Amino acid sequence: TQPKLPQPLEPVEINQLAQDFNQLLAAQNNRLQRERQFISDASHELRTPIATIRGNLKLIERRGEQHPEVIPESLGFIDQESLRMQHLIENLLHLSRADRAAVALQPLDLATLARNVVAHYQPLVQQPLSLEAPTTPIMVNGDTDMLHQILTALLDNAHKYSPATSPISVRVAQDDQAVTLSVADQGSGIPAEDRTHIFERFYRVDASRSQKVEGSGLGLAIVSQLVQLNQGQITVQDNQPQGSIFTVRLTPAPDPKKISENP
Ligand code: ADP
């Protein structure tokens, strides 16, 4: 028997193939460009503290002997900048781990998790922290460690970007479709035009730079990746009369106790 030859493609099919190929190529180029941008941003962020450290070491070397009074201040800068670099590197590692992480989501009680995180966080800050959560379990499919990290990062930001005594509230709630975890502060708020960008790597709202709040602009990029790994969504809105509310929506899971009570 004759081997069956492949049928020549119809012009429509060739067009479709060419279109698919172009789309793939564009997506690949896009990803490469984002990666290049990321590496260039990361290098830029690391270069600044290194320059400060080296500058201060040179200063001590040149003037330290004759003017020992410059030493403590320079050592202070060196300490501060090396700490900044350490945080930055830790954050970069978190990001690249989250990039590769494949997680098995488990049913867990979000109300208890939030209660634990708030109890551990409260002694670290002066600001009053409140928690509004049902006393019954609020079950979601998620990863305990990642949800801890998400809530802690949102609390860190609420703390950093609001006055030393203004309250922060955490809320766990459930409706028919989703479970939500939100963190509300009464701080500086986020201008509407920055809201879509704050989840990008290295993005910082200008005002926060001028307020000299420490940060690298990676916190929310990490949070957003962790939320995605938990198959959730994160949004931000204005709080009233001022400040922001970050809300994470997660997938509800059936409560195992209720299932066993009503088989
Ligand atoms: P970082 O805090 O290290 O700058 P993040 O990625 O956590 O980076 O946040 C990005 C930017 O979003 C911050 O620089 C800040 O301008 C803004 N931001 C985040 N959380 C808040 C908040 N609760 N209130 C006001 N601005 C915030």
Automatic annotation (TrEMBL):
EC number: 2.7.13.3
Primary subcellular site in the record, as a coarse category: membrane
Catalytic activity annotation: ATP + protein L-histidine = ADP + protein N-phospho-L-histidine
A molecular function (GO) term: phosphorelay sensor kinase activity
Keyword terms of this UniProt record: Kinase, Membrane, Phosphoprotein, Transferase, Transmembrane, Transmembrane helix, Two-component regulatory system
Domain Histidine kinase: 41-254
Keyword Protein biosynthesis: no
Localization annotation: Membrane
Domain of life: Bacteria
This protein's GO CC annotations: plasma membrane
Protein name per the record: histidine kinase
Species name: Levilactobacillus namurensis DSM 19117
Included range, full protein: 199 to 461 of 461
